[in-house]
């Protein structure tokens, strides 16, 4: 392709909300063999909601939510934000929310009246958060976080968790003063276009892969949902595979980049689509890094492409554009 063709393609991309940083990235996209999707915030909307709570110790729901929300107040994670909304609703209206309410303005003001003082806050990527409340350690996050701290997960809690996960929900565990005090089930719906985009990539001869820090049961349930649309019955009947079959779960942030590098070993061109801070090493390692426009600044910086519309269809737009610009058969 001539420099002019590259310039034109860059402009066409920009008009569609596909920003590409340079001709090299534009050229590499034509040969993409694998597209690695981050789960939370990329395939899913990144707008989680709490669907259930279960409390094991003597505390009541209000006390429980106060503890959890206080611990999560400084986290940027989508799960943390959803927990804050849930707790806010409970304390403001005296009942659990029945739907999403938009009361952002008064939120901070009211929160400050009842949130507990937190010391030594730390966000632990891929795991959760930890801090001190009343001099005692509180942990909010996944199994790894809890067991790493030497805290036992009772049988009853484990079976509740498994049940959530089989239903594509993320289980968030809460430990206070070295004891598991409760669990929350959370759901984050798929982006509407996820199904079509995954199918579209397969038709282009590209392998979709899902990578996530979330646990494998939830990840597999979500990957199956990606194949869930009106044709699913017919496709299963004629023996076609639907959804994302290649799922890599319970991957720590550094592990996402390792997965990219292992796929690149045989010379395959690998694209990564992500939104979070923990996706940035993988976005940088990929031949074609694509950041979701609504993602964190660090992810956007590490990527070659920015998909400003936050629409996964633009993954296909970007690859198409490269194929059309650099196609040898013209
Ligand atoms: P993904 O790779 O799907 O974007 P992350 O790596 O951000 O997921 O997180 C992995 C897991 O760590 C989450 O599914 C959740 O169980 C736990 N986690 C991370 N941050 C938090 C938080 N602030 N509160 C609760 N759980 C968290
Ligand atoms: Mg993410």
From TrEMBL:
It is found in: Membrane. Coiled coil: none annotated. It comes from the Eukaryota. Belongs to the cation transport ATPase (P-type) (TC 3.A.3) family. Type IB subfamily. This is HMA domain-containing protein. The lineage of its organism: Eukaryota, Viridiplantae, Streptophyta, Embryophyta, Tracheophyta.
């Amino acid at each position: 392709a001539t420099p002019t063709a590259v310039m034109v393609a860059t402009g066409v991309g920009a008009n569609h909300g596909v920003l590409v940083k340079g001709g090299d990235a534009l050229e590499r996209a034509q040969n993409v063999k694998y597209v690695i999707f981050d789960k939370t915030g990329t395939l899913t909307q990144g707008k989680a909601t709490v669907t259930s709570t279960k409390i094991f110790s003597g505390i009541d729901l209000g006390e429980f939510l106060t503890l959890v929300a206080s611990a999560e107040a400084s986290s940027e994670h989508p799960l943390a934000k959803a927990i804050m909304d849930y707790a806010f609703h409970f304390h403001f209206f005296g009942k659990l929310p029945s739907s999403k309410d938009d009361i952002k303005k008064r939120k901070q003001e009211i929160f400050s009246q009842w949130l507990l003082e937190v010391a030594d806050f730390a966000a632990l990527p891929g795991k959760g958060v930890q801090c001190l409340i009343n001099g005692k350690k509180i942990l909010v996050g996944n199994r790894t976080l809890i067991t790493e701290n030497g805290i036992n997960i009772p049988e009853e809690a484990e079976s509740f968790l498994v049940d959530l996960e089989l239903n594509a929900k993320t289980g968030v565990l809460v430990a206070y003063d070295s004891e598991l005090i409760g669990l929350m089930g959370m759901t984050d719906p798929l982006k509407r276009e996820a199904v079509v985009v995954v199918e579209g990539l397969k038709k282009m001869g590209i392998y979709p892969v899902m990578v996530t820090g979330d646990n494998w049961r939830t990840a597999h349930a979500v990957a199956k949902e990606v194949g869930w649309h009106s044709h699913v019955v017919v496709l299963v009947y004629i023996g076609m595979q639907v959804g994302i079959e290649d799922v890599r779960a319970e991957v720590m942030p550094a592990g996402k980049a390792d997965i990219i590098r292992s796929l690149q070993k045989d010379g395959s061109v690998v694209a990564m689509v992500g939104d979070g801070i923990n996706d940035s090493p993988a976005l940088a390692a990929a031949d074609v890094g694509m950041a979701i426009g609504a993602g964190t600044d660090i992810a956007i910086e590490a990527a070659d492409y920015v998909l400003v519309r936050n629409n996964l269809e633009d993954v296909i737009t970007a690859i198409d554009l490269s194929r059309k610009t650099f196609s040898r058969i013209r």
